[in-house]
């Protein structure tokens, strides 16, 4: 997990109608993002609209991100080799994929 991961919303699951519009809006707001994980169990996510920090835990192939200070919502990612995919709660959620860029401690 340690290292830098780059991601952006994928168009592969783009829906039609309202679902497509919601996914497009989320893609525009999120833009390209970067996740950095360190050995101490902390993460930093940089988005085009800001950044947040928090802690992460790994259980099997799932990575749980918990933002600091209870400000944001926890998020679960699914690890598959050098790819992390945000676990969707709803079909209309954007399909966000992160690809490992480095294994170096940030």
Major beta sheet, strand line-up = 1-2-3-4-5-6-7-8
CATH topology: Lipocalin
Count the E strands. 8
Number of contiguous helices: 1
**Strand-and-helix sequence, N→C?**
EHEEEEEEE
- Structural class, by secondary structure, is mainly beta
The percent range for helix content is 10-25%
Give the termini distance in whole angstroms: 11 Å
Which regions are unreliable across 5 or more consecutive residues at pLDDT < 50? none
Quick one: CATH class?
A: Mainly Beta
Query: How many domain regions?
Result: 1
Could you explain how this protein is built, in words?
With 106 residues, this protein is mostly beta strands. The chain has one domain (3-99): Beta Barrel (Lipocalin). The protein contains one helix and eight strands, in the order βαβββββββ. The protein has one helix spanning 17-30, and strands at residues 3-10, 33-37, 42-47, 50-59, 62-67, 75-80, 83-86, 95-102. Strands 1-2-3-4-5-6-7-8 form an eight-stranded antiparallel β-barrel. Strand 5 (62-67) and strand 6 form a beta hairpin. The longest helix is centred in the first third of the chain and has 14 residues, at 17-30. It starts with a strand and ends with a strand. The mean pLDDT is 81. Residues 1-85 form the Lipocalin-like domain. InterPro entries: Lipocalin-like. Pfam families: Lipocalin_4. This is Lipocalin-like domain-containing protein.
Which terms would index this structure?
106 residues, single chain, 8 strands, 1 helix
């Amino acid at each position: 997990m340690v290292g830098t991961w780059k991601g952006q919303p994928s168009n592969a699951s783009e829906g039609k109608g309202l679902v497509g519009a919601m996914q497009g809006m989320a893609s525009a707001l999120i833009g390209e993002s970067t996740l950095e994980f360190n050995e101490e169990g902390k993460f930093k996510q940089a988005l085009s609209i800001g950044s947040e920090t928090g802690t992460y835990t790994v259980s099997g192939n799932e990575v749980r991100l918990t933002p600091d200070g209870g400000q944001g919502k926890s998020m679960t990612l699914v690890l598959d080799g050098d790819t992390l995919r945000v676990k969707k709660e709803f079909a209309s959620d954007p399909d966000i994929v992160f690809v490992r860029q480095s294994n170096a401690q940030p």
